[in-house]
From TrEMBL:
Protein's UniProt name: Aquaporin
One CC-aspect GO term: plasma membrane
Keywords for the protein's UniProt record, in alphabetical order: Membrane, Transmembrane, Transmembrane helix, Transport
Alphabetized PROSITE patterns for the sequence: MIP
Length: 289
């Protein structure tokens, strides 16, 4: 009996030690898991875009758009004076530069109409959109002010780089032209954002730059091919000339809604259809292998 009791006591002690060791291991594993989770959460919070970061990217991008783009519109140094195609190319290549620099940070909207389209697509919240648009207007104004301060006064006289309707077209015609070209731009952007086009983004800066060049070459002589309220507002504010300014507030921002609507109801597909299409393409690739 004594030996049985001693054996039982020893067994209980052993089991207790084993249980305590197991409990300690569980506690250590839980602590380690919690530590890793906290580390991941901190990393995610660090990687989340801040309002200031997005504001700064849009501010600098739009400032460069006006500074370098309008610098490319200076014609006094050339003889003979180049056609408007040169300014279209200048703005296109500057946009290429900006998208390459800031595209992976803020998307390089540079344009309130594009930001409005992003809100409609639920790609950003309203508060972030305000930060974007504030950066765009401030950047456009200060970028153009910097160019005016650095360039020879004779090169940047009154009306330089302003977008105004041609004298031979009416205000309504100008609105219609800006509405059509900005709607075209928004449809192109919606196509870039489409998940079915995700594998074609390697040369987006070049493609988008050429889109801007093409539209600017076509519509530039008639309305200045603004497509961008901030781009028009900057020079207008510096010169204090707000003639026909309303055209470039109404048309581009209306086009943001119109372009999104056209793409959504004519060309977009549901999330489920997108996923099924991706699965189907994967199956085709596997069959080929």
């Amino acid at each position: 009996m004594v030996e049985g009791a001693a054996y039982s006591i020893a067994r209980n002690i052993t089991n207790g030690i084993i249980l305590q060791v197991c409990d300690l291991q569980k506690v250590e594993a839980a602590k380690k898991e919690k530590k890793e989770t906290n580390k991941k959460e901190k990393g995610n919070r660090r990687n989340e875009p801040t309002y200031f970061t997005m504001f700064a990217a849009e501010f600098l991008g739009t400032a460069l758009l006006l500074f370098l783009g309008c610098m490319g519109c200076i014609t006094q140094v050339d003889n003979p004076v180049p056609s408007h195609h040169m300014s279209a190319l200048a703005f296109g290549f500057v946009i290429l530069l900006i998208i390459q620099t800031f595209g992976h940070i803020s998307g390089a909207h540079l344009n309130p109409a594009v930001t409005i389209a992003a809100v409609i697509h639920r790609m950003m919240n309203f508060q972030m959109a305000i930060a974007y648009i504030a950066g765009q207007f401030l950047g456009a104004t200060l970028g153009f002010a910097l160019l005016k301060a650095l360039a020879p006064p004779d090169y940047v006289g009154d009306g330089f780089c302003m977008t105004l309707p041609h004298e031979k077209i009416t205000s309504l015609q100008a609105v219609a032209i800006e509405l059509v070209i900005t709607t075209t731009l928004i449809v192109v952007i919606c196509a870039v954002w489409d998940k079915r086009n995700a594998h074609n983004t390697d040369s987006t800066p070049i493609r988008f730059a050429l889109v801007i060049v093409g539209i600017s070459m076509a519509a530039g002589p008639l309305t200045g091919a603004s497509m961008n309220t901030a781009r028009t507002f900057g020079p207008a504010l510096i010169y204090g000339n707000f003639k026909d300014q309303w055209i470039y507030w109404v048309a581009p921002n209306t086009a943001a809604v119109l372009g999104c609507g056209i793409y959504k109801y004519l060309f977009a597909i549901s999330e489920e259809e997108t996923n099924s299409e991706e699965v189907h393409l994967d199956e085709v690739k596997q069959d080929k292998c």
